[in-house]
Design brief:
Distance between the termini: 29 Å
CATH superfamily of the largest domain: Protein tyrosine phosphatase superfamily
Helix content: 25-40%
InterPro entries: Prot-tyrosine_phosphatase-like (IPR029021)
Shape: globular
Low-confidence stretches: 450-456
Structural class: alpha/beta
Largest sheet: 5 strands, mixed
Number of domains: 2
Keywords: Signal
């Protein structure tokens, strides 16, 4: 065999090895610790409902809801809201009022949602009785449904135990929930149910022996779900969509040490670049500045054309609203154009909470260079404690934060792709190729450099 033939053979072996590595990584990433293959949070309104945790396409978990959040649920295409507890007293989240069950039921009615409560005040959430009561309620409501408690913790337990009970008694029921995968699913969500009393209930409902030494989440802080809206990535890394003014004191109380904002600023590369702000009864995903067919988004006649449901009454927005759609949203740092990063920065600076702006374009391509631009700063923040990284819908930050966590804790490509899928975002050698290449460049440099990256 001459020298040219040897070179060709070596190149073919290199390509084959890289391809096998990609296939192995893709296969590993498909083995996820979720009940079903998750989708990005939020159904039809991911920018409004980024905080939902999907168990199945029918059941999505949340903490105690504000009036605005209930209306966002309606905007997102959900049919029902289910409260685990009988909340007879109002509460607040950082100053934002949380309604009683009676008030929430009225908001749900105005929003076209069914509303139900599962437990009485005397009921124990960690019990067979709670599972039986939830099963009865679920028969009376339409799905998809948002199920909530105070912090999204207990409702996740009861919902998965309901599914485990069906698994035990119905051989045709899917997805199958056993004791073993219950602990894997909840650990992946950053929730710990390995206490003796919950382990006993799990065993009672599944009919299986108590699991010894079940997996526990590596979340730091352990009770991060005081700010239940966040998504636990790994250890001290968390993601979120657009936070609101009222969230800041809760973020601090939960133990986060810094906040990173990856939304576009008022300008980017010298051009106007404000992203859209979420508005009640206005569709997600609509452009801020308009185009040659439609004018700027926050002009009344444009908003009218973008309504989620034109037939909603004006009271859907507020008791004294003159329209059935919202025109501005200062609670989420909106101005007369759209979302303003400058308004958010100003609030953080006044509070003294460490805040960093690392913009990632909404329609840009991901690359090794893009992550490299922020890598050192992200990893330095990671050394200082829990980091909350947010954008509009928690998508951009999932791609960036999982990679940051992988680098900080020396995780490989398989782990990173698996973690993305568990958060609802699928990346592989054939899907989201630019993100896959970015991950491979930082986590699998040997295979990334073995073949021309444009061919990967």
């Amino acid at each position: 065999m001459d020298s040219k033939s040897w070179i060709v053979l070596l190149l073919l072996l290199a390509v084959s090895s890289a391809t096998k590595s990609q296939e192995s990584q893709d296969k590993g990433s498909s083995e996820v610790d979720t009940a079903t293959l998750r989708t990005p949070p939020g159904l039809k309104a991911p920018k409004k409902l980024w905080w939902l945790k999907e168990i199945t396409p029918e059941y999505h978990m949340a903490g105690r809801l504000s009036e605005r959040q209930i209306k966002y649920i309606a905007d997102g295409g959900f049919k029902s809201v289910i409260s685990l507890f009988e909340d007879n007293e109002p509460d607040d989240l950082g100053g934002e009022r949380l309604p009683t069950n009676d008030e929430a039921r009225e908001v749900a009615k105005i929003s076209g949602l069914q509303y139900a409560v599962v437990l009485d005040e005397s009921d124990d959430w960690a019990s067979v009785k709670a599972v039986e009561k939830l099963a009865k309620v679920l028969k009376t409501v339409n799905t998809p449904a948002v199920l909530h408690c105070n912090r999204g913790y207990t409702i996740t337990f009861v919902t998965l135990m309901h599914m485990a009970n069906l698994t035990r008694h119905d051989p045709k029921y899917t997805p199958r929930i056993t004791s073993k995968n219950f602990y894997k699913i909840t650990a992946a969500m950053g929730l710990d149910f390995t206490m003796d009393f919950t382990k006993a209930v799990v065993a009672e409902i599944t009919g299986e022996p108590i699991v010894e030494n079940p997996p526990k989440p590596d979340a730091n802080p352990e009770e991060w779900y005081d700010y239940w809206l966040a998504h636990s990535v790994y250890k001290n890394w968390y993601t979120a969509g657009q936070i609101s003014v009222s969230h800041l004191p809760i973020i601090k109380m939960a133990g986060f040490k810094s906040v990173v904002n990856m939304r576009q600023g008022v300008t980017m590369d010298g051009n106007p670049s404000q992203e859209a702000v979420t508005l009640l009864n206005v569709k997600d995903g609509t452009a801020t500045y308009g185009d040659d067919k439609i004018g700027p988004r926050q002009i009344p006649f444009v908003l009218e054309s973008l309504r989620t449901d034109p037939n909603r009454g004006n009271k859907y927005v507020s008791a004294d609203s003159e329209t059935n759609y919202e025109v501005t949203n200062p609670k989420e740092f909106g101005d007369e154009i759209g979302y303003s990063e400058e308004l958010e920065k100003e609030i953080f600076e006044k509070d003294g909470m460490p805040y960093y702006h690392m913009p990632v374009a909404t329609d840009g391509t991901y690359s090794p260079e893009l992550f490299g631009k922020y890598k050192d700063q992200l990893l330095e923040l990671g050394k200082k404690g829990p980091v909350l990284v947010h954008c509009a819908s928690a998508k951009r930050v999932a791609y960036m934060s999982v990679l940051a966590a992988a680098l900080q804790y020396d995780k490989d490509m398989r782990w990173a792709l698996k973690r993305l899928r568990e958060l609802g975002f699928e990346v592989s050698s054939t899907k989201k190729k630019d993100i896959y290449n970015m991950y491979q460049a930082w986590l699998d440099k040997e295979n990334y450099n073995r073949t021309d990256k444009d061919e990967l």
